[in-house]
Amino acid sequence: xxxxxxxxxxxxxxxxxxxxxxxxxxxxxxxxxxxxxxxxxxxxxxxxxxxxxxxxxxxxxxxxxxxxxxxxxxxxxxxxxxxxxxxxxxxxxxxxxxxxxxxxxxxxxxxxxxxxxxxxxxxxxxxxxxxxxxxxxxxxxxxxxxxxxxxxxxxxxxxxxxxxxx
Length: 166
Ligand code: HEC
Hints:
This protein is mainly α. The chain has one domain: Four Helix Bundle (Hemerythrin (Met), subunit A). Helix content is 69%, strand content 0%. It contains 8 helices and no strands. α7 runs antiparallel to α8. The chain is elongated, with a radius of gyration of 15 Å. The two termini are 14 Å apart. The structure holds heme C. Heme C binds at residues 24, 33, 48, 51-52, 55-56, 58-59, 62, 84, 104-106, 117, 120-121, 124, 151-152, 155-156, 159-160.
């Protein structure tokens, strides 16, 4: 499939070899998810639509971190990483019982394995803060972001349904 974001994503993938990052940012599925962002307006108001918006924001922040690394300006990863860290708690609050269906890709496992879901979220906050700290202090932003993207992938692998049609 052709999409304007595709070549951008490929470039990110080239710049950052880590498999987790590639899976999180540059996979065709993610590009399609971003291309389908306008579908969010079709989601019901309330927790499903709200968490979708936050995830879309995190997707944009993730791309900004990849772009900063690719441009050789790791310090510019600080703001998007801090933004991810700041949004995690709100995101985790948006999974009330029964908030499935209506185009949501949330798996039932979120409610049967809630502690595991929440702990990956808590770890994302720690790892995103570490990315921001590394970016501000001249640390290893690439290593820190690879660790952070591991949490995105881990949670999606366990708790997010594949896109319809895959
Ligand atoms: C604690 C679990 C968890 C973590 C951590 C997580 N996500 Fe998600 N993400 C989800 C779930 C669940 C959905 C699907 C939500 C729905 O459809 O109701 C999702 C959906 C998405 C979507 C598609 C938009 C949507 O709502 O369908 C994008 C883009 C996304 N996540 C990016 C990221 C990025 C980037 C990170 C890491 C910086 C991340 N996510 C971390 C659970 C998580």
